[in-house]
Amino acid sequence: MSRVALALSGGIDSMMSAYLLSKQGYKVTGVYMNSWDFVEEKGYCTGERDYNHASKICDLLNIDFKRVDYVKEYWNLVFTDFLENLRKGKTPNPDVGCNQHIKFGSFFNDFIMKNVEYDYIATGHYASLMYKDEKHILKRAYDKTKDQSYYLSTINSKIFKYTLFPLANIRKQDLKEELIKNKELRTRFDFLLQKKESTGICFIGERKNFKRFLDHYVEKTNSIGVGKFVSVTDGRVISNFKNGGLEFFLTIGQSAKIPGESFRYKMTVVRQMLNKNIERWYVVEKSFANNIILVAPNNHNSLFKKRIRVHNFFWQQLEIDNTSSILDNAFVDCDNNIIFNCHVKYRYRMEPVECKVLVKNTKFRSLLLEFATSQKGVALGQHLTLYLDDEVLGGGEISYIENCFFDDKEEG
């Protein structure tokens, strides 16, 4: 009987993962990873609630249970890097680092590399694996609406040899229906059906006011004066905001939430009846150094980007020095650059879009990417994942965006 260490968060997905693995004949141990010590203002630690739920799940399924602490590792390897990128005005994704360094880093090392007791690790991710040409290939999950392969594109593929994704071929809706229809499961795990699905940051969870939560950790670079919302259309100052305020946590393409705008937006119908236009502003770029947030009306051309660069791109199945070929549909130009077409996601909750990629012959980790159609909400620091059909090619960070207003230096 193969032994599996399952990352158990205390939610429906990880519970059903434990249930399915047990039904398939695996000897399962549920492992709760504690990676955050923050207690919310109301004095109740949601982490302890999740721990209690995870422990209860294992007790009800009659499987072993362990708790491990990765608070130090999460802070040093994930959260500090996240904060540093926020300070630079970037749009980082800590869930990518969480998976790379914690779930498929510390957890994998402790239960596979340093432990002969277990044969596999497993997680409740919606992702799938395919064995081909003696390699384990990461692919999108059957349920495309919940697919989480985007977050896993920088995981070393050698780890997947020891990884199980029990939810790879299951729709989330079917999972819930199975839990509801199965009287025995429904009776035992009714407390999970009442639990709100988590959509917060890995191990930190959801916060009532996430921007204010971050404000406790992000050191202000400037302490004098006020910040400005500036229109890209004519350069006028739309509004001011407190210097070092929460406005800098706004993401590119997001509604700017300019002071007083909410009231103006509610008057839209009245103004339209009077044949007057109303402007709602969206974030184009941010500059901590200049203390400026550039904004534009919705669908203004400055919100859309065509070409970007990616640095430190991690290839799932290729050696770094192998520049001879990448894909069957790739070709090499006169400068020995490799060019191919594929699909890309630069946000988790988006459908992959078509793009053309140029891989520099001298810098295999450096990519130039051109979208088939200009895209909205592209930001420096965003994680990006490339796909060929459902196969994950790899992932990296957006380091440069063509036609930016501020003269940011490209990294990498």
Quaternary structure classification:
single chain
Number-wise, the strands total 18
Please name the fourth-level CATH homologous superfamily of the largest domain: HUPs
Largest sheet: 6 strands, antiparallel, barrel
Structural class: alpha/beta
Total count of helical runs of at least 4 residues: 10
Order of helices and strands: EHEHEHHEEEEHHHHEEHHEEEEEEEEE
Return the domain count.
Answer: 3
CATH class of the largest domain: Alpha Beta
Distance between the termini: 47 Å
CATH architecture identity of the largest domain? 3-Layer(aba) Sandwich
Q: Can you tell me about this structure?
A:
- Mean pLDDT is 85; it is low at 262-270.
- It is globular and about 65 Å long.
- The chain is of the alpha/beta class.
- The chain is built from 10 helices and 18 strands.
- It has helices at 12-23, 46-61, 71-87, 94-113, 172-181, 183-188, 190-193, 210-215, 261-266, 268-273; strands at residues 3-7, 27-34, 64-69, 120-122, 127-132, 135-140, 163-164, 226-231, 237-242, 281-287, 292-297, 304-315, 331-332, 338-345, 353-359, 367-376, 383-388, 391-401.
- The strands form 4 sheets. The protein has a 6-stranded antiparallel beta barrel with strand order 12-16-15-14-17-18.
- Helix 3 (71-87) runs antiparallel to helix 4 (94-113).
- The chain has 3 domains: 3-205, HUPs (Rossmann fold), CATH 3.40.50; 226-297, Roll (SH3 type barrels); 301-401, Translation factors (Elongation Factor Tu (Ef-tu), domain 3).
- A hairpin with a 7-residue loop joins strand 14 (338-345) and strand 15 (353-359).
- The termini are far apart.
